[in-house]
Design a protein that fits this description.
Elements (H helix, E strand, L loop, with lengths): L6 E6 L20 H6 L4 E4 L1 H4 L4 H10 L5 E5 L2 H6 L6 H9 L9 E7 L8 H10 L4 H8 L22 E4 L8 H10 L2 E2 L1 E3 L14 E6 L12 H15 L5 E6 L6 H12 L7
Parallel strand pairs: 1-2, 1-9, 2-3, 3-4, 4-5, 5-6, 7-8, 8-9
Helix pairs in contact: 5-7, 6-8, 9-10
């Protein structure tokens, strides 16, 4: 278990056609794009897991392609957040945690749960959901063992060395930024995502867990606009304050991928913070 808090900066995903020849060098095989990105930042969000269950061999492959000190945040499935809307989700959670996350080993970082904008705060529903989330790799393996036939690949249920599993919640309805909702997140130790969404959804900096999770979707145009050097210096100051001289882990992921701004902004912020790439 790490004893000194870290700052992680990366992108949300890495497989985007517009990045080819613009960020990725011409001729770089698609299978080596993660390898290339991971030598320039020190973390990345896996967002394919939002759209469908992944497979253990894919998680193992991603871990193998990246430096020893690299970290993956993993985005929770939309079946849980958007289709089931957090109701009756224990079987779906079991399938998710059996699908291969644990194959990342020590490279497994926080799990991100992004809620749809239509989902309003329901204290009982949210409390039940947050209470189901595993807090350690052993708990994740135990939950994964309850998977059902919807899991199409053999499960990965080896917890490895016991490590914490942390969770972050990205909310998009204003009812989630009330004292009651924030108190519930603090009770469960789940981080409220600091989400910059060009003013479209709520922006809050409340710290509800022992780490900070930031998603930068664009400050002018959602998913598209890049951050200026001045804006990135402002974010560097915020990250430094949240890091609190090594007392709090901070994760920052850029999701402004459309015009290839995400990797460029991530590298600039990493450099402003004086962070080396993962080794």
């Amino acid at each position: 278990m790490r004893t000194i808090a870290e700052i992680r900066v990366g992108t949300s995903g890495w497989r985007y056609p517009p990045w080819r020849r613009e960020f990725y060098p011409a001729g770089l095989p698609q299978r080596r794009e993660l390898e290339y990105l991971s030598r320039q930042v020190n973390a990345v969000e896996i967002n394919g897991s939002f759209y469908s269950l992944q497979r253990p061999e894919w998680y193992r492959s991603w871990a193998a392609q990246t430096p020893a000190d690299f970290v993956f945040a993993v985005k929770g499935g939309r079946f849980i957040t958007h289709m089931k809307q957090l109701r009756d989700v224990e079987p779906a959670l079991a399938n998710f945690f059996a699908s291969g996350l644990l194959a990342l080993g020590p490279k497994l970082g926080p799990v991100l749960w992004q809620l749809p904008a239509r989902l309003q705060f329901d204290p009982d529903r949210v409390d039940t959901f947050l209470g189901l989330l595993p807090r350690t790799t052993a708990e994740a393996a135990k939950l994964g063992a309850k998977h059902d036939e919807k899991l199409k690949a053999p499960p990965h249920l080896e917890p490895g060395e016991e490590r914490p599993v942390r969770h972050a919640l990205e909310v998009r309805h204003p009812s989630f930024v009330t004292p009651e909702a924030l108190g519930l997140l603090r009770h469960h130790g789940v981080a409220l995502v600091v989400a910059d969404t060009a003013g479209r959804w709520p922006y809050r900096e409340d710290q509800t867990a022992d780490f900070t999770y930031v998603r930068l979707h664009g400050d002018v145009e959602l998913y598209t606009s890049g951050y200026t050097d001045s804006a990135l210096r402002t974010w560097a100051g915020k990250v430094t304050a949240w890091h609190d001289s090594g007392r709090r882990d901070v994760h920052v992921y850029f999701d402004n991928d459309v015009k290839v701004e995400a990797p460029r902004n991530a590298i600039t912020l990493k450099n402003l913070l004086g962070l080396p790439p993962a080794q």
